[in-house]
User: Which sequence fits this backbone?
């Protein structure tokens, strides 16, 4: 409008001041006034120009702000301009399609309001596919998990100066569980891992379980300062992860419902050619499971008499962890051979240590004993004699015991949260909560589990 008005004024000025330029019939007085610079005539000319400018501007402004007949103006000039630019940049796409897609997708969730608030960040972008909306929901859950993890860590700060084994507060459990949750959510979005439908469903389910366990640990003792806000954040995170799981099942379930797992040519949980093991147990791992401990090429040998590379299992696990951090030994299977004997210790294999195998000389020969329990202040989660979080964990030919006794309440012998874990030819012994199959995919075969409650 402004550019058009400017050029129009130039044309008007030219017509008024030089009406006969380029002709042979121009009146003498007009030419004289042009050449002589008569002030009176110039004043009259500019007065005409100003009058025309006012009339033209008023007309343009009136047309710009005049609403359609029967309607009221609903946007400011700036808003109209922004909307115009948005439509130009997006090829005419508005947020209506995306908003409708979000509303429809969130109807399949348990917490639609939380779902819509999580996906609102994409409402201003071009419409997304349901799968892209699922990815956005996981990203949002990750951001909330980071916030919850920071809060949990800050709540544990007063205890950081303490050393040695002591009953930690529930927030310690939450820090570990939220770390694991962040890894799981990252794996869901990691295209390099090419996660399958079952992978994503398993990992999101495990992430949900972690939040429930965090809340249980927080509730196991009288609440400390700040733990109420921790519980609130975890409850909120639970809703967002639950919604991600529902969105994933909604997207992938439709595709799979036509074929089914077996009809699509996928392998079932057990196949004849696997020797009775799940398909995710590789041929090399099945060979290891069939090889005697003394005949294995072990990465570490534990012997209480000092004849091995380490005297305790914990030392061997820590050594292999440091070796992996330093880039030594690669990322393949790590075998720790535990020779016959009794080892009184608590073992933890963290999420970062993958493919660890503990193999002993047989049930009742290679024995690991611990006695942590709820009565002495430990959470159920932290009471485990052996706790494995690293994916690909294998235990074979071992006896694992929590010797606390029935009066000590929750006292776990073996806790596993590792994905693709195998427990083969082991004896797990305790009283209450002997075996804590916490999360992810686990396989047990030829093993004994002893207990009195849960």
Assistant:
């Amino acid at each position: 409008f402004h550019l058009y008005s400017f050029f129009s004024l130039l044309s008007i000025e030219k017509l008024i001041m030089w009406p006969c330029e380029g002709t042979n019939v121009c009146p003498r007085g007009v030419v004289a006034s042009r050449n002589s610079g008569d002030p009176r005539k110039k004043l009259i000319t500019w007065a005409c120009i100003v009058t025309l400018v006012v009339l033209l501007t008023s007309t343009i402004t009136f047309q710009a702000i005049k609403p359609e007949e029967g309607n009221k103006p609903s946007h400011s000039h700036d808003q109209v301009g922004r909307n115009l630019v948005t439509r130009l940049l997006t090829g005419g796409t508005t947020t209506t399609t995306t908003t409708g897609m979000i509303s429809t997708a969130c109807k399949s969730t348990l917490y639609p309001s939380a779902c819509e608030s999580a996906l609102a960040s994409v409402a201003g972008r071009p419409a997304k596919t349901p799968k892209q909306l699922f990815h956005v929901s996981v990203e949002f859950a990750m951001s909330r998990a980071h916030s919850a993890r920071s809060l949990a860590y800050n709540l544990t700060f007063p205890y950081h100066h303490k050393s040695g084994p002591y009953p930690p507060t529930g927030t310690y459990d939450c820090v570990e569980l939220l770390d694991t949750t962040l890894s799981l959510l990252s794996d869901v979005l990691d295209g390099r891992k090419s996660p399958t439908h079952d992978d994503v469903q398993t990992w999101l389910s495990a992430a949900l379980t972690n939040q429930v366990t965090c809340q249980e640990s927080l509730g196991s003792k009288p609440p400390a300062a700040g733990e109420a806000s921790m519980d609130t954040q975890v409850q909120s995170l639970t809703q967002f992860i639950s919604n991600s799981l529902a969105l994933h099942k909604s997207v992938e379930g439709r595709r799979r419902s036509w074929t089914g797992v077996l009809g699509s040519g996928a392998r079932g949980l057990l196949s004849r050619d696997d020797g009775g093991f799940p398909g995710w147990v590789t041929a090399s791992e099945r060979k290891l499971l069939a090889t005697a401990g003394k005949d294995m090429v072990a990465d570490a040998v534990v012997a209480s008499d000092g004849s091995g590379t380490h005297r305790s299992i914990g030392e061997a696990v820590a050594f292999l962890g440091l070796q992996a951090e330093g880039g030594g030994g690669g990322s393949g299977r790590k075998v720790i051979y535990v020779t016959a004997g009794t080892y009184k210790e608590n073992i933890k294999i963290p999420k970062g240590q993958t493919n660890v195998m503990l193999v002993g000389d047989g049930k009742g020969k290679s024995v690991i004993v611990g006695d942590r329990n709820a009565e002495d202040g430990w959470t159920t989660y932290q009471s485990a004699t052996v706790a494995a979080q690293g994916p690909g964990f294998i235990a074979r030919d071992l006896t694992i015991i929590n010797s606390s006794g029935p009066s000590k309440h929750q006292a776990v012998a073996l806790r596993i949260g590792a994905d693709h874990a195998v427990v083969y030819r082991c004896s797990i012994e305790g009283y209450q909560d002997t075996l804590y199959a916490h999360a992810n995919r686990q396989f047990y075969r030829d093993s004994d589990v002893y207990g009195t409650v849960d």
